[in-house]
Amino acid sequence: MKIWFLTDEFPPSFGGGIGMYVDIASRGLAGAGHQVIVVTADTCSKHEQINDNLIHHRFLRPDNEQSAKLGYYITLYQAYYRQVADLIDRVGRPDIIELPEYNAIGYYILQAKHLGEARFQGIKMVVHCHTPNFELSAVNRTPEYAFPIYWIGRMEMFCMKAADALLTQSQFLHNHLLPYAGEKTFDVIPLPYHFHETGNRYQCGKHLLYAGRLEYRKGVYQLLDPMTKLWEEGVQTPLVLVGSDVMFSPRNQTIGEMIRQKYGKWIEAGLLIMKDKVPPEELERLYAEAKAVVIPSIYENYPYTNVMAMANGVPVVVSRQGGQAEAVGEHGVNGFIFDWDQPGDCCRVLREVLSKSDDELRAIGARGYQRIYHCCALQHNIPVREAYYQKIMGEPAAYHPYPFLTEIPASPLSQEAALSPEKAGLLSVVIPYYNLGKTVKETVSSILRSDYDQEQIEIVLLDDGSTDPDSIAIAKELDNQYDCLRLVRIENGGLAHARNTGVRLARGEFVCFLDADDTVEPTYFSRCIQVLRLHRNVSFVYSWVQYFEGSTSVWTTFDTEMPYMCAQNQLTCMAVARRKDYLAFAHNHEEMEYGLEDYDGWLGMVEHGRMGVCIPEALVNYRVRPASMARSMSRDAILYLRTQLKKLHPALYERFGAELYALLLQNGSSMRWGPQLCESSSFDQTEKLMAEVNAFRNSRVFRMAKRIAGPLYHSRAVRWIIRHI
């Protein structure tokens, strides 16, 4: 088989659990004779042949200059898409691409397959769930609806729903993520591990060891309460914490700072010892020297720290809230299991561990070794993965409905729309036109450059009562020049009235409204219609927007997403829609007389289960004019129009009110949300600054300076000098 792995964590640049998994699994599968490529963003660009069957394809991680237009995350995810697309073009398709749900790095690859991109067809996309950000944020009490966390979480959910197959490591995570799987189920395969023939064996030490990030969900902070009870009872067993520090948002402190603040006296007593992160080889030595290793997570998948401890014959004390309990299996036999949901259970189990003799602990560690060896050793684990991949490859390819995250029941068409005649395949491009003779020729020319069948395009130039003589003359000139163009003149009634009239005049199966000063790229119409033909549950298709004339920015956006769409429009009027759906549900109301009439129409479609898809490329061009209708609206006009939207679409705002409240609470007014959806809101520049400050506070340099400064400040001589400077 040809198997590719995507990862944003990979040795030696990043030593996290995902990177460790990909490294071990890729080497194990290559050793079994499969052709394996690992694709990862790194600090260098290198296509490295590790052995006959294994390639490490590293590409340069985007820098600030590259991500200036699109934002860092979108630039990174687009880079993964381009790297994989280029590799397919160079070496051919793999059978399997396995990518993590974490951070959604494969979002645009999965979307490209669903949008019908030829190079990705026939490849089975397996999403391996390690633990998604949207779950971590909730458990770590991080603001889940703050940008960019919100969008990363939504993209992670899309990856899971868009995958051909889902894989994870524990039944615990399987149960938590099943609601996001759509109609799919998960397969559960424990992590692979390379067992050393000679290594650090258990030495029955005198301390308990926690190894891992000082993160809230890891349970290390919670562990200190039961440990304190034991120490207060006179137990002299130290607890050693080894790992990097992590911020805890609600307290605006790191977990390490919180521990030092609350449990400082036990540090002074030598019963609580805190160490920085160490390399894996050093960690194995620390395992061997411990009495037991504690995995106290309140939410966990299948941690390598637990696997490594058991692989060294060390007894483990684990919480039931994660795959670590599944690895142990039976309390008191292969390790020790406590339950955070049972008050006092952690303290009870710790007492039980400390009461065991060295021989009893060795026997438990030995049984734990045998159990984890059977689950994770390459000779057992790799054949299970091979069988899983073969099963996935044997499943028939089938196009499913487009994997929208928001499920809104589809309303039946109105009788007028259902009976409205249309020509199959015909695209009606409606151009509402008012005194824009200077730009309309450029707009029409862009339509005529389209690679969509020109015999299947009609242009309806809808003159909304122009008063400028030159504009009137140019409209007539275009009418005479092009057979595919129809000029229709109506009394001036504003954009909403013009669009309502235009959709009734259109004769096509598809309709697109194009303002008379904007343009489209040659592939835009064909790409949109390809998606509409591919997925019956898609009603309109749009793309990113390239601004021109008054700006060079790109408006990056996603598929129609609730509740975000209730607070901020996600597309321009230039979407290509099924005309009957638009006619039935996108009526532009007269209440929207100052603008946002297109936003009103899209909300009407979404409200009736007619969803939209975004092609992640800038295929339309929006002219930025200072005097345009959108640019000249006052703040009060915008507030009035948004109030009207709530009144016109009450079902949407009632259904998504709670989530909408959270979005607005955590990101500020939606009028301040920027066009780069996957970046922090401009409203929250203070938070960015605080993040930079906290990052510095977490640095080793700061901590070292703090250790030195503390004793110096409390020195009488130093304080005398400070007072008299």
Highlighted features:
single chain; 725 residues; alpha/beta; Rossmann fold; 4 domains; eight-stranded mixed β-sheet; 29 helices; elongated; disordered C terminus
What does this structure look like?
By secondary structure, the protein is of the alpha/beta class. It has four domains: 2-188, Rossmann fold (3-Layer(aba) Sandwich), CATH 3.40.50; 208-373, Glycogen Phosphorylase B (Rossmann fold, 3-Layer(aba) Sandwich); 422-668, Spore Coat Polysaccharide Biosynthesis Protein SpsA, Chain A; 681-725, no CATH class. Helices cover 43% and strands 18% of the residues. The protein is built from 29 helices and 25 strands. Strands 17, 18, 19, 20, 21, 22, 23, 24 and 25 form a nine-stranded mixed β-sheet that branches. A hairpin with a 2-residue loop joins β3 (46-51) and β4. α7 packs parallel to α8 (255-268). It is elongated, with a radius of gyration of 30 Å. Mean pLDDT is 90; it is low at 681-697 and 718-725.
Which helices and strands, and how do they pair?
Elements: E1 2-7, H1 17-31, E2 35-42, E3 46-51, E4 54-60, H2 72-91, E5 96-100, H3 107-114, E6 124-129, H4 133-139, H5 149-162, E7 165-168, H6 171-177, E8 186-188, E9 208-211, H7 220-232, E10 239-242, E11 247-248, E12 253-254, H8 255-268, E13 272-275, H9 280-289, E14 292-295, H10 304-311, E15 316-319, H11 323-328, E16 336-338, H12 345-355, H13 358-376, H14 378-394, H15 415-419, E17 423-433, H16 440-448, E18 457-464, H17 469-481, E19 485-490, H18 494-505, E20 508-513, E21 519-520, H19 524-534, E22 538-548, E23 554-555, H20 564-567, E24 576-578, H21 579-585, H22 597-607, E25 611-623, H23 629-632, H24 635-648, H25 650-655, H26 657-667, H27 685-697, H28 700-713, H29 716-724
Parallel strand pairs: 1-2, 1-5, 2-4, 5-6, 6-7, 7-8, 9-10, 9-14, 10-13, 14-15, 15-16, 17-18, 17-20, 18-19, 22-25
Antiparallel strand pairs: 3-4, 11-12, 20-24, 21-25, 22-23, 22-24
Helix pairs in contact: 3-5, 4-5, 7-8, 7-12, 13-14, 21-22
